[in-house]
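ok, trying the design again with the full structure, not the truncated one.
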């Protein structure tokens, strides 16, 4: 009898130790101490992070990761939920803070009605107003990619809820600081140049000669893939693919970050770039990394440098090196993250899109090195700061 009882105690003891070991092992694998590009990246609940086309805000000691909340299947490429936000102290481990901006599930006429396309959300903090400001690329429901608008939302808290203010086409009635006389003379009606006129035209000068800038002067410039950048003096800029994606615009935002001032520059004219990112080194140099235009399919990244955001920009070519460098390691840029407290330490953030099952998209985060004044990105299976 006694022997039987002892046996039971031993069994319970061994079982207890085993469960404890398993529990701590489980905890240990879920706590990251490195980046694993392209692997599933689990949040505090063990769920793959759902923040695609994202960007990071650092505020009061915390990193906030905002991105597109995708759902399963091809339908997941449209916005059914909104913008997801996560927080982290170390950049490896992320806590789910829910939906920062929700699409409108009631009003089907809302600009951000459920089923619209809401991409590449970015959030910046305005010190003067104490508000968090979100801009994103917006395509109105049922119009595919024809609307080419920017949306803006605001919140008192970094985790939201953000309130949608409006959507617009930037810089209505304003000429780029480097617009030429032929653009101004040829202010065209909306029907004059169409997307079809661009078919097969890839010579930058011929693209420019179509004067899409002039066509959109009255109604505002097209704005698709985008990013935000706050300079050291607190001025914020909106960078976006404009003019039927042929030309990149860098536009100054108003003091409250809620509108455009009308001061903007055209860069990489007729070069069809997407997924723009901007960052600045301690030397005061501005860098650009972006992609070409091939939809969800990856292409070769491009980079450039400037002493002034308004240019001139000097092109530096593909920053990626090594195997799969020609497809940006099968991904497309979304943000360049300056690591806090580490001088000139930047993380290249990109998306490996999976359009057939949008929710499964993977995150490619890689360190940026500088070689002879050029940014360089190499593939790493695992790395840490
Ligand atoms: C990509 C763009 C994405 C998304 C996609 C749709 O080129 O970067 O944000 O718009 O096209 O095909």
């Amino acid at each position: 009898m006694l022997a039987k009882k002892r046996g039971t105690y031993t069994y319970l003891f061994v079982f207890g130790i085993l469960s404890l070991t398993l529990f701590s092992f489980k905890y240990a694998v879920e706590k990251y101490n490195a980046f694993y590009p392209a692997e599933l990246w689990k949040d505090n609940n063990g769920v793959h992070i759902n923040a695609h086309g994202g960007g990071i805000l650092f505020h009061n000691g915390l990193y906030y990761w905002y991105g597109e909340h995708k759902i399963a299947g091809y339908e997941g490429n449209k916005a059914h939920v909104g913008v997801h936000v996560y927080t982290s102290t170390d950049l490896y481990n992320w806590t789910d803070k829910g939906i920062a901006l929700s699409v409108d599930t009631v009003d089907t006429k809302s600009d951000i009605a459920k089923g619209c396309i809401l991409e590449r959300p970015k959030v910046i903090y305005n010190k003067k107003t104490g508000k968090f400001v979100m801009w994103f690329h917006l395509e109105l429901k049922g119009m595919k990619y024809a609307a080419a608008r920017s949306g803006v939302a605001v919140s008192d808290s970094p985790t939201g809820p953000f309130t949608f203010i409006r959507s617009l086409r930037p810089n209505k009635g304003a000429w780029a600081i480097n617009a030429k006389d032929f653009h101004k003379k040829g202010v065209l009606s909306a029907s004059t140049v169409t997307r079809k006129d661009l078919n097969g035209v890839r010579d930058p000068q011929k693209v420019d000669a179509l004067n899409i800038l002039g066509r959109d002067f009255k109604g505002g410039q097209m704005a698709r893939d985008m990013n935000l950048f706050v300079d050291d003096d607190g001025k914020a800029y909106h960078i976006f693919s404009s003019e039927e994606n042929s030309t990149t615009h860098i536009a100054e935002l108003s003091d409250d970050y809620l509108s455009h001032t009308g001061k903007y520059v055209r860069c990489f004219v007729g070069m069809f770039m997407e997924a723009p990112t901007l960052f600045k080194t301690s030397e005061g140099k501005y860098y650009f990394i972006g992609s070409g235009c091939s939809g969800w399919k990856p292409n070769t990244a491009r980079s450039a440098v400037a002493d002034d955001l308004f240019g001139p920009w000097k092109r530096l070519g593909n920053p990626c090196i090594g195997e799969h460098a020609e497809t940006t390691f099968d991904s497309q840029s979304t943000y360049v993250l300056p690591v806090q407290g580490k001088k000139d330490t930047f993380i290249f953030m990109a998306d490996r899109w999976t359009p057939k099952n949008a929710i499964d998209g993977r995150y490619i985060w890689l360190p940026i090195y500088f070689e002879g004044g050029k940014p360089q990105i190499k593939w790493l299976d695992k790395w840490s700061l």
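Keeping the full-length input from now on. The chain is about 10% helix and 35% strand.
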